[in-house]
Amino acid sequence: FILSAITVVWTKALSARTRALGVAGTDDRRDWYELDPSNADDELALSLLQNVIVAQVPKDRLGAPDSNGVYRALDTWPDSKRLSASENLCPGQRFLRQPVFAHCSATLVGPSQVITAGHCYDNLACADTAYVFKYYVTGHDAGGEPTFAEITTDDVYFCSSVTTNYNKTAGNYDGTDIAYVQLDRPVLGRTPADYHKKLELTTRGQELLGIGFGIGLPAKVDANVKVTDPCPKPLTDFDPFDGSEGDLTEQFSYQQLLDDLNSGVRNSDCEEEPVFFDVAADAFHGNSGGGIFDSQGILVGALVRAFSSSKSDDYEMTDAGCYVVKPAPEGLKSASIVYVHRVLDLVPLSPPSSPPSSPPSSPPS
Predict the structure, then answer these.
(1) What is the per-residue pLDDT across 44-84, written as a single tens digit (0 to 9) for each?
(2) What are the residues facing 302 on neighbouring strands?
(3) Which of 218, 36, 201, 191 is closest to 107 using CA atoms?
(4) Domain residues of the chain, as ranges?
(5) Residues with Cβ < 8 Å from 40, sequence gap 6 or more?
(6) What crossing angle do the helices spanning 254-261 and 5-16 adopt, rounded to 10°?
(7) CATH number for the domain running over 5-345
(8) Which of 128, 249, 267, 276 is found 20 to 30 A from 363 (Cα to Cα)?
């Protein structure tokens, strides 16, 4: 399968970025405490958050547990590493006081296995990586500061080995950018995600559920992920880079991409088996590796690429010298998802025995 030139653009853009990758249309991200257990879709999201959604965190950010086996890093997280200061966002923007803690997103797919994006190990060694459950916001205290579930040693696991076909030097244009991670021990009290063991094509317009740790923030649920192309067609004549380096903004624009997307250059008939499918999603750096689920909670893919040509595509500088989030145009495919069965090219996995259990009615302690 030959990756489309537009996917190559995303790969280059992703590696060139140090900031967020953007909101598609309306910002649909929600925190754990905003989910309604009486709503079936939210109940599913709560179950996934409890069982399979896990943050990839550098061990030096996590620190060591106290004498009671509780990790306290979030209790004293510095203001300089919260979203407001980290991204220089203006007052009134969302999630300003939340910590930038995670490096990437991952999903539990076996008793002691998770999958994430291969490029999440670009600058992070397996030996330096922790996988943390229950990194989400449970509410706010009297002073308006976010509160968190207690994270104990039973919620934290460490990378034992990682297998990926990601090729950093080649930009991974010929790979799937999926990584299979063996944890240091079996995960306690959680049921792994079920996932497709063979290709199950998505359909254009299909609504999916995405959960991840965009920008390193606590888990965000996006229940409005929509498939824009289940089988992207290679765009052989589209070469915005032309072999040169430089400011991505000078190379291409959102409008150019929209024109290409709307001109019929899509592989609707899927003449070749696809590696990826494209979606409109609220995808930021940190969402890489995050699970994308169908309405039954089945894992269909992992987010591995997103498009943005420059900081100005995601943020708009105000006269006050700070930034506000600028949504991407409606209809633009903002992220690329690797079909999850591709992980079997790395390591065959055994299917879990049952689907995720029902979510707790109150924050775990």
Answers:
(1) 999 999 999 999 999 999 999 999 999 999 999 999 999 88
(2) 291, 338
(3) 191
(4) 5-345
(5) none
(6) 150
(7) 2.40.10.120
(8) 128
CB proximity list for 248: less than 8 A, separation 6 or greater:
12, 13, 16, 309, 310
DSSP string, 306-327: E--SSHHHHEEE-TTS-EEE-P
State the residue for tokens 């930038």: 100
- Take residue 134 and report the two structure tokens written for it: 């229950």
Decide which of 298 and 21 is more confident.
298
Q: Is 343 helix (H, G, I), strand (E, B) or coil?
A: helix
Among residues of the chain, what percentage have pLDDT more than 90?
A: 55
Contact by Cβ (8 Å): 115, 343: yes
Q: Which residue has the higher pLDDT, 224 or 313?
A: 224
How far apart, in Å, are the Cα atoms of 317 and each of 83, 89, 246?
16, 9, 21
Q: Cα–Cα distance between 220 and 31 in angstroms, integer?
A: 5
DSSP conformation letters of 173-233: TTS--EEEEEESSPPSS-PPPPB-SS-----TT-EEEEEE-GGGPSPEEEEEEEEEESSPP
- pLDDT single digits (tens) 254-306: 444 445 444 444 445 676 788 889 998 887 778 999 999 999 999 999 998 87
Side chain identity at residue 357, one-letter code: S
